Amino acid sequence: MDWAALEAGLGTSLPSDFRSLAEAYPTLVIDDFLMVSLPTPGAEAPWASASRDDEILQDLYEMGDTGDYVPYPQPGGLISWASSNSGDTFYWKTSPADPDAWPVVVRTDNADWIEFPVGAVEFLAGVYGRTIDVPGMPRNFPSDDPKVLGLSDRID
């Protein structure tokens, strides 16, 4: 992964836990429900561009449907890093200045905004381990026998 090119295109560094996650898992889908948007080597520029110019978030902002949150690249703006197949979107709030201290913000499919004071990997581990509850997400997620599509799995 050319992190320097990706972060230059995005205009900010990314959290180190996410960088490690992306290096370990070129694909990450939890229980066929939560998909982490990981950059792939050679496609850093499109990933950065899509993250920087999030049209859906911009539209929500212009409609006044983002609460106190703003889209990146505004100071403290949101950058999307995952989504669910029921319409939940997972963001970082790019404040404070240290990306490793960015909290996770979830926009649920019910249009609720919830902030969690943890990073992406701690958030995913908490959701997977059922120590973090995201109101509005299905009660059966993760399932009793969750499947994780990752490093050795194929996507056809």
Keywords:
seven-stranded antiparallel β-sheet, 156 residues, 17% strand, Knr4/Smi1-like domain-containing protein, 7 strands, alpha+beta, Knr4/Smi1-like_sf
Commentary on this structure:
The protein is of the alpha+beta class. 28% of the residues lie in helices and 17% in strands. The chain is built from 5 helices and 7 strands. The protein has a 7-stranded antiparallel sheet with strand order 6-5-4-3-2-1-7, covered by helices on one side. A hairpin with a 5-residue loop joins strand 5 (104-107) and strand 6. Helix 1 (3-10) packs parallel to helix 3. The longest helix is centred in the first third of the chain and has 9 residues, at 16-24. It is globular. This is Knr4/Smi1-like domain-containing protein. InterPro entries: Knr4/Smi1-like_sf.
Give the topology, please:
Layout: H1 3-10, H2 16-24, E1 29-30, E2 34-36, H3 44-52, H4 55-62, E3 78-84, E4 89-93, E5 104-107, E6 113-116, H5 120-128, E7 148-149
Antiparallel strand pairs: 1-2, 1-7, 2-3, 3-4, 4-5, 5-6
How many runs of DSSP E, i.e. beta strands? 7
Q: Give the fraction of residues assigned to helices.
A: 25-40%
Main sheet summary: 7 strands, antiparallel
The low-pLDDT segments are: none
Order of helices and strands: HHEEHHEEEEHE
